[in-house]
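Can't paste images in this forum, so I'm doing it all in text. The chain is below; anyone willing to post the predicted structure tokens underneath?
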Amino acid sequence: MADGEGDPGVFTATALPGDPRLLPTVTNAFLGTRVFRDILHAAGVYSGAAGDTHRADVPSPLGLRMAAPGARSPAESFTLNTWTGTFSHTIQSPGYTATHQLYAHHSLVHLMAFSITIRRLDGSTHPITVQLQSLFVPQSQDLDLTPGPDFQGAHYIYGQTLVPEVEGGPRPTVHMLWTPIPQSLTLGGEERERCWEFLTAVAGSEEEAKRSYSAGLSLVAAGSLHGSHVRAWAALRRGCSVELDGPLALRQALHGCLYYLLSAIPPRDTPGVLFHGISPGGLSNGTRGEDYWGHVFWDQDTWMFPNILLLYPEAARAILQYRIRTLEGARRNAQEQGYEGAKFPWESAATGREVCPEEIYGAQEIHVTGDVLMAFEQYYCTTQDQKLFQEDGGWELVEAVARYWCSRMEWSDEEQLYHIRGVMPPDEYHSQVDNSAYTNAVARRSLNFATDMARDLLLPVPEEWEDHARKIKVPFDEERKYHPEYDGYSPGEPVKQADVVLLGFPLMHPMSAEVRRNDLEMYEPVTDPAGPAMTWSMFAVGWLELKELQRAQSQLEKCFSHITEPFKVWVENSDGSGAVNFLTGMGGFLQVVLFGFTGFRITRSGLLFDPALPDDVTKLKVSGVSYLGNKLEVTITREEIRMEVTETSWDPPASPLEAVLESGQRFPLWEGMA
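Text version of the structure:
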């Protein structure tokens, strides 16, 4: 299966993968489906109570397949073009081509569309017919659907989810309009080429569904429906451009990751559209029993968020607003476990209440609360956006998390330190442990950020925040100079996934280069080789930090066993099990490029950089790095690092930047000057 003309952003095949889970997804911030699938999902629309909560299946008119009647073994090709955000299926028969294009409109987020184009290649004048094989039935196991009157030629159904997430809670409503789909399409004998366009609009209200459908029809009439999507998508890709000179497989992986992750975020200039978070398998997946049922984990805040923040802080803000909207549910979680403040759920859906089907994770994997707050800290350091905290609910969340951690700690008279007991660390092979190094370190970071944030907002700082942060135990072996994963950890014990190595990055827990190396050396050989995809990226970042380029490369290469052909869809585990379209693994991979190769580190005092390119990468260019209202273009080669301010905001005014070298030499960075 060759890839289109060597273009690293175009994935073409002559046959589809045997496993339909590995088909590519077409998604925007509100709608998503897998190609050729008979269901789609809408953001925030879940059905089922508590642990049964899952994305509600919405019947999809988009899941059809073209066929050429009478043609003997026509040549077929299937292409995912990450530059245009479009999937296409082409049938090449003697005398004509038929092309089916499918996309989720990037800027009209309530609209998905497909087109069928038949083009005559010879001088014949006979009609040409293409069959449309559809599995669409306007029914759902999760929605009580009722047909309504047609609207501007579209069929219409609407209905509510069957079971609310919490008793007495809301049951979201879905309204869907779609262009009726015939069983076949015919190019008349006198026609050379014709394109038929089909729209599907899905929204939470009849008014929005009709508005989106009408907007789509207007664009169809102007001949610019697909063009308007491509322009919006291309603008996003330009603003989040990451290019490197290196092996084709690495460049393809990079463009695949950017396509799938950027598909999940809201478009620019849509502040009124609520964002509902990103689940490990994205919006296209998450039906009952699939891809963690569409729930939101730490995967969003720790693994995906830093990349989005660096390239597109407005979308990062929307992710944080999802957490703010679910704060009340997090308060209830803490209260039910006997603690103060807010405890974010291990698995979150619409309300912030715990929806994990297995109680042990929700009860013990509490590091997620610190992971959420670390995303807020990274955002604040990158943007200095005080409005989020002062006016939009951010401070209430920060304060609630700090109160939770203080109430969750217990004082040890013996060690004269605070302990956090009975947890599951990121390494899920161990549970009910005391003083998980990662959990305690992220709790300390939460309290330090809450303290700093209070001072920036001129608010009083509770003494217990500083006291608990200063005196919390983070296990450390003075003899071996490494961090045991938890109290009683024995060197050599198997570990499921990246855990202690996260202390170095992204936590940036204070430690010497010797300790950082020892942590990597200790845990690399005992980490399960069948573990989840994001693990190896964090080992790669650690070795890049220490300028151990070969060791970094060997860890990065492990990621490729999680990338499936031909559409670069990631699987959680290398044996194909777990979540599919695994955005978590893609987020980890992108962090190797955006934070490992560049050495970027987000701190209160500045954006640090210390590049380290592996041997087979000769150049990296990242356009649209956002920092304090400025846009930077960063180019790294073996010989030099170039930084150019390409854009500065005026409302509010961007902070002037300067590059500071280790020698202390300072270089002001002005717009247009490298």
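The first strand starts at residue 10 and ends at 13. Confidence is low (pLDDT under 50) at residues 1-5.
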